[in-house]
Structure formats: structure tokens, C-alpha cells
Amino acid sequence: MSIAPAPAFDPWQRAFIADPYPAYAGLRAQGPVTYFEPTGQWLVPHYDDVRALLRDRRLGRTYLHRFTHEEFGRTAPPAAHEPFHTLNGNGLLDLEAPDHTRIRRLVSLAFTPRTVERLAPTITRLAEDLVAGFVADGGGDLVAAVAEPLPVAVIAEMLGVPEADRPLLRPWSSAICGMFELNPTEETARRAVDASVEFSSYLRGLIARRRRDLGDDLISALITAHDDEDRLTEQEMISTCVLLLNAGHEATVNTTANGWFTLFRHPAELARLRADPAGLLPTAVEELLRFDTPLQMFERWVLDDIEVGGTVIPRGSEVALLFGSAHRDPARFDRPDVLDLGRTENPHLAFGAGIHYCLGAPLARLELVASFGALLRRAPELRLTTEPEWNPGYVIRGLRELLVEV
Ligand code: HEM
Fold first, then answer.
1. In this predicted model, what pLDDT tens digit does every residue of 244-270 receive, in sequence order?
2. How far apart are CA 361 and CA 344, in angstroms?
3. N or C of the chain: less Cβ packing under 10 Å?
4. Which residue out of 96, 116, 258, 358 has the highest number of ligand 1 atoms within 8 Å of its CB and is therefore the one to mutate?
5. Looking at the DSSP assignment, which residues form a beta bridge with residue 362?
6. From atom 19 of ligand 1, which residue's Cα is the shortest distance away?
């Protein structure tokens, strides 16, 4: 008997982006790590390895706290890219200890569970209003009408970005996020650099206004946050605000749209959810985050030699942790390819693990429960009208639009 070869891991192919799961199964069968020549990365497809490496301090989101580019065997990015790297490199997601520890502590003083809980009624109201408008229109593009505006409005509201300026956020964010895809082109880099310059200058102005006139928003809280006389520098403030604004909506938009697409393709599970939304929504949201996770891959630099399943991966290498594959690993999940909205044993990694664990996870969960809940109640017959297309990005994976009627 001959076994058909598994489809290749090819993150630039539309068919792969639409359904990467057969290729992941092939990678898992191949072994604990596979070297991927086109990006020069070690692909890690098994759950236990992904989870362990997220917590392993021999890896880092940056290496610059320990080595120069040359010492690490890499070349420095072109000087023209500097605005992007300065912006990105001063936000907590791309820092390691001790800077990460210090900034995360300061940001956590402002971004507290209480701040998030206080927002719950606002989030519910925003979701209900958006969905009511969408239903009154008879449907349309769920991405543009609900999935996107809700998290953008919430994070902008938290940071105190005036309503008139909010349309600027999404284009800046997507230009910057282009750099997180694999092997970004020079054109992508140019757009990210322009957006970094404009976004930084916009925030510099907003922060200056808040310094003169503190409010009860997150920027004001970041200005006053201090810990043993330690405060965020101006650049750290700007980078943190950009990170919060971008991370605060990108994945939530995609979880909402990808999640509804998953539900439409699993009508029995959708019917089950419609029959008991209040009872099933909390586990359903977790299952949608597992089943078609919005962030498919996270990268780490290897700061000291590690061994994964018998293969030594030397210092200077890069590993690509495949969240989407980890979530379908039968060694960890019972019937991983089955969508079970009532799944209770569900230790998915959608929000990461270790020191970079998502700061916004409670907020994202609130938003997802609010928007799925509002749509389930107000649009009980919501259905897909057109097969959607995927955006070209693989790392941040989402639908271009999701056309539905009510
Ligand atoms: C469904 C929605 C979301 C998903 C799936 C998600 C996922 C993640 C993941 C996987 C990480 C860790 C990355 C790594 O280890 O390399 C992360 C970090 C982060 N997320 Fe989220 N996120 C979501 C929503 C949010 C929201 C709403 C915010 C709001 C502010 C947010 C803010 C952050 C921040 C600030 C970090 C960096 C934490 C650090 O480096 O210490 N995220 N997120």
C-alpha cells in the first residue's frame, strides 16, 4: 500500500493558508523538528515542545539584550528600517528580562483586571449596537461591520484615542503587522517604516496632551505608573501604546471572523450553540481559539543551544512554534480535528505561555463572548452567502471578508 505524501508546508500558497492542517499532520509525523530552508527556521509542530519552548529562557523574542547582530551571526537590518525596529524593539513583546520584567510590571499597574472588568458593560453595549445595525442592514460583511469595529473601538476607548482619529489605527496596524509575516518584502518594510513614523508621531502628540491634562484613560495611567521611582521612558510609552493598539485588535478581529466561518462549516455545532448560547459560549470561544487559531506561528531566537526530540538546535538559530499544529496534536487533545464547542479539557496555547503570555486575554475573552452572544441572539439565522477568501498573511491568519445574511 502506498501512502500519499502529506501536502507541503508552504506558507506562501493560498491553498495552504486556507487549510494548513493536513501539512501540519505531515510535519508532526515527520518528527519533532523540521528545518525549513526558505526561512532558515526550525519548525516545531508538537504541542508539548511548543509549550515547553514558550517557557524556556534559553530562547528569546530578541537576542539584542545579550548579543550584537554580528555576535549572533546575523546582519543588522538596513538603517532605513530603523523607525520600525525602534518602535517594535521598545514594546514589551519584543523585549526580554530585565527590560521586559520592568515594563510588564509598569504596564500591568495600568492594565489591571479591574480596568478590564469595568469595561464589561461598555463592551456589551458596543457589541449590541454594532450587531443591531448589522441586522437592520440585513447583513453584509461581518469583518467590516462587527469583527473589526468592536475591538478597535474598545482598545481606542481604553487608551483615550479620540473617535475622529480611530480610522487611522487599522491601516497603521496592518502596515506594521506586515513585518511579522515570513520573509517580508522591501515594499512591506517601506510601508511598515512609514506607518511607524506616522503612528509614533501621532502618539507623541497624544501623550503630550495627556501629560498636560491627565484623564482616566490608559495613557494617563501609563504616564503616572511608577514602581520604585521607575517610569516608562517616552519611547517605551509610545511603543507600548502602539503594541496595545495593534495587539489589542488584530487577533480578536480574526478570531471573530475565523470563528464564525468555522461555525458555518459545522452546522450541527452551530445549532447546539444556538440552543444554549449562555451555557455553551465560554467553552465555545475557547474551542474556536483552539480549532482555527488566529496566530498560527510565533518565532523565537535560540540564545543557548537547545535539544528538541534528540536534535540539537544551536545558538543563533530561529525556531518557529506552530500553534495551529500544536492545537491539533492528538498526543494532547482528544479527537483534535473534531470541533466540540463543549470541550472542557482544552489547554490551548492561543494566548501563549511563559513571560509573554497575552496581557489582553481577559479583554479578548470579554469581547468575543459579547460579539458572538449578540450575533447568536439578534441574528438567529445568520448564514454565509459567499465562500470567503483568506488574507495572504499566514502568521496572522484571517479572512478578507465574511459575507453573510441574517
Ligand atoms: C483573540 C485575541 C488575542 C490573541 C489570540 C492573542 C494572543 C497573544 C499571544 C499568543 C501573545 C504572546 C506572543 C508570544 O509569546 O510571542 C500575546 C501577547 C500580548 N498580547 Fe495578545 N492576544 C489577543 C488579544 C489581545 C488584546 C485584546 C490585547 C489588548 C491589549 C493584547 C495584548 C497583548 C500584549 C500587550 C502582549 C505582549 C505581552 C508580553 O510580551 O509580555 N492581546 N497575545
1. 999 989 999 999 999 999 999 999 999
2. 18
3. N
4. 358
5. none
6. 358
